[in-house]
Write a structure and sequence with these properties.
globular, 194 residues, 11% helix, 30% strand, mainly beta
């Protein structure tokens, strides 16, 4: 399958719009073992300085969040409870917003994914933000790269018929921000996280 990365202009839309536009796109990772990819089926938007659940709340600028202050379309990876999570930097330069990719539906490289997620049934290979990075081989080494060039790319997929939205997950200590309906998923997709 030939993948053509989405242009940098795709990432210039407002964060909440981009979080929905990413659904159905293909996340592709090339490694020495081969290529693995999946359709993005769930995302979560974080609106930077005003969003208490965002790493960049209050314009917090650290070694970890530095890439969020760059242009949209950059790769923001970080480690949470030993899992590497992958985000799409969004918003304008110096306006640190990002979109967490929460789940993908396996497309290519299923044998690789099965190896990397050994002992798990297919449905559980990629139905969570830490699971999908393991299955696709996304690591902290991807931090700071651009999604429009290898080894980690987002390419054209399909446009979902129905998109659902709801509260974000796992951010209970973020005050009123925990109730914002900024999680988006392809309705009824079996790979959406719990």
């Amino acid at each position: 399958m030939k993948h053509i990365p989405l242009s940098s202009s795709f990432y210039k839309q407002p964060t909440l719009e981009l979080a929905k536009a990413l659904l159905g796109c293909i996340l592709v990772k090339e490694t020495e073992e081969g290529k693995a990819s999946g359709y993005i089926v769930e995302t979560e938007a974080y609106l930077g300085p005003e969003d208490r659940a965002a790493h960049s709340y209050g314009n917090r600028r650290t070694k970890r969040t530095e890439v969020m202050f760059h242009e949209a379309g950059r790769i923001y990876t970080y480690v949470m409870h030993t899992h590497c999570l992958v985000n799409v930097v969004s918003g304008e330069k110096e306006k640190p917003e990002a979109i967490l990719i929460r789940a993908v539906e396996p497309l290519e490289g299923e044998e690789l994914m099965e190896c990397r997620r050994h002992g798990h049934v297919k449905k559980n290979w990629t139905n969570g933000p830490g699971k999908l990075t393991k299955a696709l081989g996304i690591t902290m080494e991807d931090y700071g790269g651009c999604f429009n060039e290898p080894p980690l790319m987002i390419t054209k997929g399909f446009v979902p018929e129905n998109i659902s939205s709801g509260k974000r997950i796992g951010i209970d200590n973020s005050g009123e921000a925990r109730d914002y309906p900024w999680r988006f998923w392809i309705s009824d997709n079996p790979y959406v996280s719990k």
